[in-house]
Design goal:
Structural class: mainly alpha
Strand content: 5-15%
Number of strands: 4
Number of helices: 3
Order of helices and strands: EEHHEEH
Helix content: 40-55%
Shape: elongated
Radius of gyration: 20 Å
CATH architecture of the largest domain: Orthogonal Bundle
Length: 117
């Protein structure tokens, strides 16, 4: 069986980092979710609308169940765009706490400065 993401085990990025397979997988899931979001929402609306006939609602539920898992939003994981780290990601900047601190101290983030009180 061929790999799902061929050639993406070590892809060099100009910043000196390597793209990790989990980053590619998450990006793929984000794209698939964006492509199927309207279809998914329409099917969810149809399946939950009690004024519609039961047959149409069941068909919508079956179509929803047959869609791939990676079209769901729950499959998308917040990851740091610099390092691919999945824990303690600051969602406003899409950076993990370590990379956020490095960039903030270097002055690379607009509007962020060290707090003192």
């Amino acid at each position: 069986m061929p790999p799902r993401y061929p050639g993406f085990t070590k892809l060099h990025v100009p910043g000196g980092e390597y793209v990790k397979t989990k980053m590619v997988r998450d990006n793929f899931k984000r794209q698939m979710f964006a492509e199927n979001e309207t279809t998914r929402n329409a099917l969810r609306y149809i399946s939950r609308n009690t004024t519609l006939p039961m047959r149409a609602r069941i068909e919508a539920q079956l179509q929803l169940a047959s869609m791939p898992n990676y079209t769901r939003y729950t499959q998308v994981k917040d990851r740091c765009i610099e390092s691919g780290y999945a824990r303690s990601v600051i969602s406003d900047f899409r950076l993990c706490r370590m990379k956020f601190r490095e960039k903030a101290l270097a002055g690379d983030l607009a509007g962020v400065k060290k707090g003192s009180w």
